[in-house]
Specification:
The structure holds two protein chains of two kinds. By secondary structure, chain A is an alpha/beta fold. Chain A has one domain: Glutaconate Coenzyme A-transferase (3-Layer(aba) Sandwich), CATH 3.40.1080. In chain A, helix 2 links the parallel strand 1 and strand 2. Chain A is globular and about 55 Å long. By secondary structure, chain B is α/β, with parallel strands linked by helices. Chain B has four helices and 13 strands. In chain B, the strands form two sheets. Chain B has a ten-stranded mixed β-sheet. In chain B, strands 7-6-9 form a three-stranded mixed β-sheet, with no helix packed on it. In chain B, a hairpin with a 4-residue loop joins strand 6 and strand 7. In chain B, helix 2 crosses helix 3. Chain B is globular. The chains are: A alpha/beta, B alpha/beta. At the A-B interface, helix 4, helix 5, helix 6 and helix 7 of A face helix 2 and helix 3 of B.
Chain lengths: ~240, ~220
C-alpha cells in the first residue's frame, strides 16, 4: 500500500466546489500552509474549489494560509471557536461585509464533535454552553441533577492536516503542539490529506510512537522544511505573492 | 469617591496564593496568566494549555521562539521537565472530564448566582468564545480575576449579568481590585477587603448584596515592583 502522491497539486486535486474542509492547526502551529496554498493556486487557475465550508479553530492570520483563502472568496462558511488573531483584517472585513457565514462553537465542543464523528457517535451531551446563546435550539437533558446540552457530530468531506513523520501507510507523528486538532480531524473527515515534513519507509516509525494510525489517512505528500504561518505573518508575507510591476 | 485599588499584578499575586502545590491549573489569556509568576515558594503547579501541553514554563528568550511551542494565547512558551503533549480532544477531556483543579479567567460581569459573562460585549463585532465555556464547567474550582468596577465606574459584580453568558452558576471565587469574594448559595460572601475601603464604600461599588460570614480579613498584597 502506498498513499503518497508526488505533488501538492495532486494532493488537493480531488476537492470539489461546495466541499466541507477541516483545516488543521491552532493559530499557525500545525497549519498545513503548503496544502492550503496549493488549493489557492488551483482556485486561481481554474476558479475551483469555491463555496467551501471550512472548519478550523481560528479564522486565519495576516494574508497567508486560511486568511488568503478567505480573502480570495473561496470560503462561504467558517465553523470555528475563536475567529480572532494578531492580524484579523481579512476575516473581519469578510464578516462585516456579510460575505462569510460564521458558526461559533466552544473549543472543547468543536474537538469533541470531531472525535464523535470519527468514532461514529451521532450526538453526545455536555454542560458546555448550557444557558448561553450558543445552546439556543439544542435539546437539553438532566443527568445526575445537572443540565447538559446535546451536541452533534461534526463530519467533513476532507481534512487538510500537517504531520511531522509519515510513512506510505499513513501512520503519522506530529511536532510539539502542532498536534492540536490534526488527529481528530483525520478521524472526522471522509478523506484526509496530509502534508508531512518527512516521508519515511514503513517500519521506520516505531509503532509505540504513532499518534495517528494510517487507517485515518488517505493521501500524503512530503513537504520538507514547511513554512510556518507565524513566521510568514511576522514577515508581512502575502500569498499569492504580489507580482512586481 | 477615590479609592486606592490593587493593580493587575497584585490581584494575580493574591489569586496565586490559593493555588496548591501540584495543582493542575489553566490560566486564561491576559491578566490570569500573571498568576504563574507569583507561585509561593515551595509550591509548583502544573499548567495546562488548551492547545495540548501540560507542564509548560516561562516564555523563551527573544529570538528563541519555536512557533510549534505556543500557549492558547499564541505566545511562545518553554517546557518544564515532565511536560506532555496531547491532541485537542484529549486536552478538552482533561477540562470537561473534571481533571483540572483550578481555572482562572477574566470577567466582564459575575452574578451573585455565579453566572459569568466574559466573551461578548453587545451584538456588534466578531464573537469569539474559545475554550472559556468548557473551562468554567470542567475545572473543580473556577476563579475570576477582575477589576471591581468597569472603567466608567459600573459594578462588575451584579445581581444578574446583562452581557452574553459564558455559563450559569459556575464561579466559585472572585479576586477583585478591592476584595476577595466567594459565590455561595446565599450570594456574594465577602472574605477579604482592602483595609483602605469601608464596608459601605465597597457595597456601593458592588451590584448585589455582600454577605458577611465570620470576620472579613484585610486583603494584603506585598510590594511587587
Amino acid at each position: 500500500m502506498d498513499k503518497t502522491v508526488d505533488s501538492l497539486i495532486d494532493a488537493v486535486a480531488m476537492i470539489p466546489d461546495g466541499a466541507t474542509v477541516m483545516i488543521g492547526g491552532f493559530g499557525g502551529s500545525g497549519a498545513p500552509i503548503e496544502l492550503i496554498h496549493a488549493l489557492i493556486d488551483r482556485f486561481k487557475k481554474t476558479d475551483s474549489p469555491k463555496d467551501l465550508t471550512v472548519i478550523n479553530n481560528n479564522s486565519g492570520n495576516g494574508q497567508v494560509g486560511l486568511a488568503a483563502m478567505i480573502r480570495e472568496a473561496m470560503v462561504t462558511k467558517l465553523i470555528c471557536s475563536f475567529p480572532r488573531s494578531a492580524e484579523p483584517q481579512v476575516f473581519n472585513e469578510a464578516y462585516s461585509a456579510g460575505a462569510i457565514e460564521l458558526e461559533l462553537v466552544p473549543q472543547g465542543t468543536l474537538a469533541e464533535r470531531m472525535r464523535a464523528a470519527g468514532a461514529g457517535i451521532p450526538a453526545f451531551y455536555t454542560p458546555t454552553s448550557f444557558g448561553t446563546e450558543l445552546a439556543v435550539g439544542k435539546p437539553t437533558a438532566e443527568f445526575e441533577g445537572k443540565p447538559y446540552v446535546q451536541e452533534r457530530w461534526l463530519k467533513a468531506d476532507f481534512a487538510l492536516i500537517k504531520g511531522e513523520l509519515g510513512d506510505p501507510l499513513g501512520n503519522l507523528t506530529y511536532r510539539k503542539v502542532a498536534r492540536n486538532f490534526n488527529p481528530v480531524m483525520a478521524m472526522a473527515a471522509h478523506t484526509t490529506i496530509v502534508q508531512v515534513s518527512q516521508l519515511v519507509n514503513a517500519g521506520d516509525i516505531d509503532p509505540e510512537v504513532v499518534i495517528t494510525p494510517g487507517i485515518f489517512v488517505n493521501t500524503l505528500v512530503e513537504v520538507r522544511d514547511p513554512q510556518q504561518e507565524e513566521d510568514l505573518m511576522r514577515a508581512k508575507e502575502t500569498y499569492p505573492r504580489a507580482v512586481a510591476s | 469617591m477615590s479609592v486606592t485599588k490593587l493593580d493587575n499584578e497584585s490581584i494575580a499575586w493574591r489569586a496565586a496564593q490559593d493555588i496548591h502545590d501540584g495543582a493542575y491549573v489553566n490560566l486564561g489569556i491576559g491578566i490570569p496568566e500573571l498568576c504563574a509568576q507569583f507561585q509561593p515558594e515551595g509550591r509548583k503547579a502544573i499548567f495546562h494549555t488548551e492547545n495540548g501541553v501540560l507542564g509548560f514554563g516561562q516564555a523563551p528568550e527573544a529570538g528563541q521562539e519555536d512557533w510549534d511551542l505556543i500557549n492558547a494565547g499564541k505566545k511562545a512558551i518553554t517546557l518544564e521537565p515532565g511536560a506532555a503533549f496531547f491532541h485537542h480532544a484529549d486536552s478538552f477531556a482533561m477540562v470537561r472530564g473534571g481533571h483540572l483543579d483550578v481555572a482562572i479567567l477574566g470577567a466582564f460581569q459575575v452574578s451573585e448566582k455565579g453566572d459569568l459573562a466574559n466573551w461578548r460585549l453587545g451584538a456588534s463585532g466578531v464573537p469569539a468564545v474559545g475554550g472559556a465555556m468548557d473551562l468554567i464547567h470542567g475545572a473543580k474550582r473556577v476563579a475570576i480575576i477582575t477589576d471591581h468596577i468597569t472603567k466608567d465606574g459600573s459594578p462588575k459584580l451584579v445581581e444578574a449579568c446583562t452581557y452574553s453568558l459564558t455559563g450559569v452558576a459556575c464561579v466559585n471565587r472572585i479576586y477583585t481590585s478591592l476584595a476577595v469574594i466567594d459565590v455561595t448559595s446565599r450570594g456574594f460572601v465577602l472574605r477579604e477587603k482592602l483595609p483602605s475601603i469601608s464596608l459601605d464604600e465597597l457595597q456601593k461599588l458592588t451590584g448585589a448584596p455582600l454577605q458577611i460570614e465570620d470576620t472579613v480579613v484585610d486583603l494584603f498584597v506585598p510590594e511587587l515592583h
